[in-house]
């Protein structure tokens, strides 16, 4: 087989075989095929797309390029949830204990990463003592006995994706549906998921800016999952404004606690139910999505979800008393209000820019070396569609520095007020096949 022939075949719009795709992926991972040939191949995929079969082959070839996590010692169907990323997305913190309370095994591997706030691991570490450095045996025991545990990222998973993603980044080939879909799905499958629930975001704070693109990506991923034997469903959700009210690490833990008590922000609760019901259904713990949703509401109301969160924290060394006393979470030194300068209705809260404002306070990492301040962040006092009076607070800044003029300026630039505005639709679509 010669790489040049494979490039020409794809350039001419023909379907590549399983062997040809594997030749590209393994050859590139092992350093046998140079960047310039894989660049040309990626560009031909960008223009000519891939069939469903090619997408499934590409995904599995990337899974097989490195180590995979074996979760077979965990009983039940392991359902993993993946979000394409947003601002103030507190869903994982809520969903892990929520679905575990219905005996859905949650065996989560979680990293730190760069972003407006930390990742799930950073957020959870705002609970004193909580840690994700578990031995694999301990991790498996915790999931079997308590249905939920989080372990730090380890192992050389999907090296082909790492290399290809870096190459795509500098060859203008990131924005290709088959390449994005196979990239995301390969990572979930390598991490041991039997079934996958996807939250594909759309809007200013999202990777996919329009609902149409988000829908296409969701269909592509659901189809890959189902073609490689992992039942997959997706929700397409709004990320034009941040999710919930809290953006920050400890602030989001507090928001998750409220949501598990049934007292959280309505949009966060709605999205958690939309994703949670798919997880419960795919795990085989309900006969229909409707029944799954009823069960989720029940464990919120009867306190079992909250109880599960306490055990989860304590199992991994965390001080579970924060659940009843959220003031024991890290607190910022200064609380500063950002008042509205006119009457009207909030018409826009630009998600990614507001996320950047939180990052300026130290809530997230700009580089791998940056330190996160777990206490700082933003609390939105208004969401899009809410009425507001001049002087009323739009946002409360939680800061550990006194001068936050840069943060205030960023917030004011990115929250607009108009004579009339409606709340955006949160769940745009549900993709189940
Ligand atoms: N996120 C990924 O993990 N992969 C892509 O290709 C794009 C976004
Ligand atoms: Ca939030």
Q: Mind explaining what this structure looks like?
A:
The protein has 433 residues and is α/β, with parallel strands linked by helices. The chain is 44% helix and 16% strand. The protein contains 16 helices and 13 strands. The protein has helices at 3-11, 18-29, 35-48, 52-63, 91-100, 120-124, 136-146, 159-169, 177-190, 211-227, 249-260, 266-282, 289-301, 304-315, 351-360, 405-414, and strands spanning 79-83, 106-110, 148-152, 195-202, 231-238, 246-248, 334-339, 344-349, 377-380, 387-388, 393-399, 415-418, 427-431. The strands form four sheets. A four-stranded mixed sheet has the order 1-4-5-13, sandwiched between helices. A four-stranded antiparallel sheet has the order 6-9-11-7. The chain has a three-stranded antiparallel sheet with strand order 10-8-12. Strand 4, helix 10 (211-227) and strand 5 (231-238) form a beta-alpha-beta unit. Helix 4 packs across helix 9 and helix 15 (351-360) runs antiparallel to helix 16. The longest helix has 17 residues, at 211-227. The model has no long low-confidence stretch (mean pLDDT 96). Residues 282-309 form a coiled coil. Homodimer. GO terms for molecular function: pyrimidine-nucleoside phosphorylase activity.
DSSP summary, beta strand count: 13
* Relative strand content: 15-25%
**Shape descriptor:** globular
- As laid out across the biggest beta sheet, the strand order is 1-4-5-13
Distance between the termini: 35 Å
Order of helices and strands: HHHHEHEHHEHHEHEEHHHHEEHEEEHEE
Mean pLDDT rating: 96
Count of helical regions: 16
Which segments are poorly predicted (pLDDT under 50) over 5 or more consecutive residues? none
